[in-house]
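Lecture 7 notes: from sequence to structure.
We start with the chain below.
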Amino acid sequence: MTRTRIPVALLLALTAGAAAAQQAPPQSLPAPVQGHEVTEVGPGYYTFRYTGTRNVFLITSAGVIVTDPIEPAAAALMRAEIRKRTDLPVKYVVYSHQHWDHVLGGQIFKDEGAKFIAHRNCVAHFTDMPHPDLVMPDISIDAAEHTLSLGDRSLMLRYLGLNHGDCLLVMTPDGTDVPFIVDLGTAGGMPLPIIPDYSLHNWIRSLRELEGWSFETYVGGHGIPVAPKSRLTERREYLEMLMQETKRELDAGTAIEQIPEVVAPRLAVRFSHLRGFSGIVKDNVRRVLTYYGMGW
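Predicted structure tokens for the same chain:
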């Protein structure tokens, strides 16, 4: 994509303004979801929600495969929920990516002897930004596809390359066509305001790839238990329009500080129904300005 040169000082001013705006109560965002719940997705396949974050776990004949432990309190609750369904131990914990809102709290499973798995690129992040509640992976993978087998079941781990960070794994248990797709498309919601740690064009590429897979529903890292595949398409179309309309105004010579005001109403025509739209959309535009102006 053609990049437009934007003065760095102006971009920094825009970013600072966005950060200040985020200190105020966000508009149109739902209140945090409290408590936890478990939803059966398929035979032996469950999604666990703690407040606003989700993972999945898979019960096999030889033990349990758990994904993101979320945080210590969540992991303890999930362990209790697993105990209600099986006495078998947790054998593996698989990290979906490197972000702390998903991967902390796994020590309870490590103490039982579980092995921890992540993409190789995550290990570099964990080493650079250690956290006392993070268990370092025992096994790192770097293949585009890796099958984790345990007892009579398996979990397919797929790496799509750079998108949300550089180590995100999409996971699908055998016997079901409902993958666990973290943070690439939260059903019915907006991206985070400044869309941190996303490569925008690679995010779109990954969503297109997922749309070509054979499944109808998926479990996301946040939100409802199971979402229709169309929500991934909705996210891609939002991102594409966001980038196209922002670039259109840059090419037209619209003043940088005015571009969010111009682009937001156009996006509202199709996407105002998304949760948090009014409080987030202008910061999304500012993020795209850094993409075209600074190359990130």
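Points to note: The two ends are 12 Å apart (CA to CA). The CA atoms of residues 141 and 258 lie 45 Å apart.
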